[in-house]
Amino acid sequence: MAPETKRETVIVLDFGGQYKQLIARRVRECHVYCEIHPHTMPLSEILAMKPMGIILTGGPNSVYAADSPTYGKELFEAGIPVLGICYGSQLMAYRLGGEVKTAPVSEYGHTDVTIDAKDSALFSDVETAADGTTRCWMSHTDYIASVPEGFRITAHTPACPVAAMENAEKKLYAVQFHPEVMHTVEGTKMLRHFVLDVCGCSGDWQMKSFAEETIAALREKIGSDRVLLGLSGGVDSTVTAVLLSRAIGKQLTCVFVDHGLLRKNEGDEVEAVFGPNGQFGNLNFIRVNAGEEYFAMLKGVEEPEKKRKLIGEKFVEIFGNEARKLAGTGGFRYMAQGTIYPDVVESGMGAAGAVIKSHHNVGGLPHDLVVELGFDEKPIEPLRSLFKDEVRKVGLELGIPEKLVFRQPFPGPGLGIRVVGEVTPEKVHIVQEADAIYREELEKAGIDMGKGQFFAALSNMRSVGVMGDHRTYDYAVVLRGVITSDFMTAEAAEIPWSVLQTCMNRIINEVRGVNRVLYDLSSKPPGTIELE
Ligand code: XMP
Fold it and tell me: From the CA of 344, how far away is ligand 1's center (Å)?
C-alpha cells in the first residue's frame, strides 16, 4: 500500500534495462520519490500520476526491431520533462524524427565523453578534464546519427556523434551513456540536475515524512478494523509491525511462527522485543513453537528444493491455522506483509528466468485461504515502495534498536537451508552454536558484517579426525562470509587468517560433533550465498 499523498514523483519507464533499480535509487538519493513502471503503462495512467518527470531506461533492443519495447510520440508531447538513457535516448530521437544507426562495433565500458554544451541544464557544474571530457559508462551498439528538429548536440565521443542531446524548450533530454552507474563519475550530478532543475522537484522527500505520511494513511485506510501480520523478526516485518502499531495500536495482531530453524536464541530474542514485556508491548504478539512439527516433516528429506517447498507449505499451514482461529474472534479485515520494492519489481516485471531457488517470504497466505478467511484480497504492504536501505532508515526514524534494524538478512526457510542434506535437531544445534561463535568472533574483530552476509552452515560431509588419542568421525562446519550490495552478485569476504583460526579452534573445541571447519571462498556466481 503506497500512501495516497501529493508527493512529487518521477517515473522510470522500463524498456528492459538492467539498471532500472539503480536509476530509481539515484533519484531517491536526491530526495525525490520515484517509481519504476513497465513501458506498457498507458499515457493516461502516467498522466493520472501527475509525474514531475519521466526517465526512460536503457534496454538491449534496437528501435527498429519489430518486437522491441517502444512508446509513441505522444509521450514526448505531453509537456512532461523526459530524460532518455541509452536505448531511451535512441527511442526519443527515433520517435521525434532523428536518425538511429547501428555501429560496426559496440562502444562499451569507460568512455571519455566531450561535453559540448557546458550551459546545458544537465551539465551545468559537471567537472571536466583539461580536454573537456568527463568519464562515463557506455554500453551500446546503436547510436543517434542525427538529432530531431529543435534539438542540439550537447556531448559526443570519437565513436558516437551524439552522446547527449536536448531540446531545452520542451524539456527533453537524452544521454547515450549511463549516468546511474558509479563509473559515470559525474552521473549523479546530472541526474540531480534533471530532477531538481529541469523537472523542478523540490527534493524534500524524507524518510521521516514517509513514516508520518504512512502512519496517517494506514490509520485512515484501516479505520476500526483489525490487521494480522506474520512477524519473522527480520527488518522488513519489524518495521511493518511498528508502523502498524503506531497507526492502529491494539487492532494489530502479530503471529510469529518459530520453526525451530532460527539462529541461536533468536526465537526468544524476538519474543523479548515484541512480546508483552518488550519495547513494542502492544502488538498482540502470538508465538507458535512449531519446531517439533518441522523436524518431523523434514525427517529423511535431503533435496534442497523439496526442503524449501515443505518448509514454505508448513508455514502457510501453521500460520493459516492461527489466522483461522483469530478470524473466528471477529473483526479481522486485513493481512499485512513486509513486502519491499525489489520484491515488487522482481515479481511483477522481471523476466521469466530459470528458478534457481524458490524463495518464500514469511507473511504471505495463498489467495484461496485469504478468501476463505474473509480477509481483504489486497494485503497491506506499507513498505512496498521502499528499498532495503530506505526501510532501515524508516526503522531508525521509528526508534527501532539498531541491532534489529541492521540485522543481517536471514532466509525464510532458516537453518533448514544451511544444513546440507537431511535436517535434524542435532545438526541444527551444531549450526546454531558454530554460527553464534563465528559471529561473536567477527564482531570482536571489528569486521563490518553490514557489508554482506556472514553465517555458519553445516556440510553433509563427515570425515576422520583425531582428538586426544581418539579417532573422530564428525561433521565439517562451513563458514561463509560474502560482501555484496545487492545480493545478486557477491565476493567472499577477506577475513583475517587469525580470526578464522580463532573461530576454527573455538568451534571444534566447543561444539560437539564437529572436527573440521572450512571457509567457503566461492563468489556468486557461480556459487550462491546460501548453500542450498
Ligand atoms: P542466494 O542463496 O540465492 O541468496 O544467493 C540471496 C539472498 O536471498 C536470501 N535467501 C532467501 N530469503 N527466503 C528468503 O526470504 C528464501 O527462501 C531465501 N533463500 C535465500 C539469502 O539469505 C541471501 O540474502
Answer: 16
